[in-house]
Amino acid sequence: MDCDWGSMSGSLEHFQFDTFVARWTERRYNNDPYVSFPLGAEVAVERIRMKAVSPATDFSFDFHDLDLVRVSD
Question: How confident is the model at residue 2, as a pLDDT?
Fold first, then answer.
């Protein structure tokens, strides 16, 4: 699965359960995040969470502890 968030693009590699690792094409920043897609009661993605894989990742990347929540249609 490919992903493209502005200038950061790459692929998602399955890690475990509902969690993937985004492997950015630009490798020099050492900023790959875990991307989780927790399911709700209706077996639909309820939110998207992102957290850096490496504790050495620069905290100026704004995805640390990102938690995107689905809103009603």
Answer: 56
Q: Computed from CA positions of residues 20, 22, 23, 27, in that sequence, does the dihedral angle turn out positive or negative?
A: negative
Q: Note whether 43 and 66 are within 8 A (CB).
A: no
Structure tokens at 69: 């929540």
Per the structure, the complete domain to which residue 14 belongs is given by 2-69
pTM of the entire predicted model: 0.75
Q: Report yes or no: 70 and 49 within 8 Å, Cβ to Cβ.
A: no
Residues contacting residue 48 through CB under 8 Å, at least 6 positions apart: 35, 36, 37, 66, 67, 68
pLDDT, the chain, mean? 82
**Angle at alpha carbon of residue 45, lines to 35 and 57, rounded to 5°:** 15
Whole-angstrom distance, CA of residue 60 vs CA of residue 49: 17
